[in-house]
Design goal:
globular, 196 residues
């Protein structure tokens, strides 16, 4: 099977079977790219950060990037079209039928179940990405003290806490949060506070 067809089919499957948007897709994207050897976990985590801070839909950015890494420009087109096509068709069908069935108990039950699952998928993604960022060499009690002494560990914790506070309590624009985080990382890298 050609790499282009494989990219299209894998991302088509993700687009058709994943509910909840880009963040809920991360576990499926991770499983796919790792099983095919398209990216390493570290590369995927780095691109999640880049994808979040670039314009456009998160899932589209990741599919385009993976396709580009694996198959160049045509690979990025195959992966992106594969990902976008199923939701596009599904949303057209739902838009046609939703008004008719939105008061149905079955439809309400399905929506409640899907919302709960999406929260679980996003929570699992937060834990996985957090683990990879905080413990890139893996967690063990032998090196836990060493991990705690690195500037990177504390920098990540402090920046996370400050940005979360600014986002939740000061209602700062998310774009400003991204710019401030990038500026803090650049400053910390230049001053030697962290190793990049």
């Amino acid at each position: 099977m050609s790499i282009y067809l494989l990219l299209f089919l894998e991302f088509f499957k993700m687009g058709a079977l994943t509910f909840g948007g880009g963040y809920a897709m991360i576990p499926f994207i991770e499983e796919t790219v790792l099983s095919h050897g398209w990216l390493t976990t570290g590369e995927l985590v780095n691109f999640i950060a880049v994808s979040e801070s670039t314009p456009g839909a998160f899932a589209v950015n990741i599919s385009t990037y993976v396709g580009s890494e694996v198959g160049g420009l045509f690979g990025s087109l195959c992966a992106t079209v594969g990902l976008v096509l199923p939701p596009f068709v599904i949303i057209l069908i739902i838009a046609k039928c939703y008004e008719k069935f939105k008061e149905s108990l079955i439809v309400r039950g399905v929506m409640l179940g899907l919302k709960s699952t999406v929260v679980g998928l996003i929570g699992a993604t937060v834990l996985k990405v957090g683990y990879e960022v905080l413990f890139p060499l893996g967690f063990s009690f032998e090196n836990f003290g060493t991990e705690l002494l690195t500037g990177n560990f504390w920098f990540i914790i402090v920046v996370f806490a400050v940005m979360l506070f600014l986002l939740l309590y000061k209602k700062l624009n998310p774009i400003l949060i991204i710019v401030l985080s990038a500026a803090a990382g650049i400053l910390a890298g230049y001053t030697g506070l962290i190793s990049v």
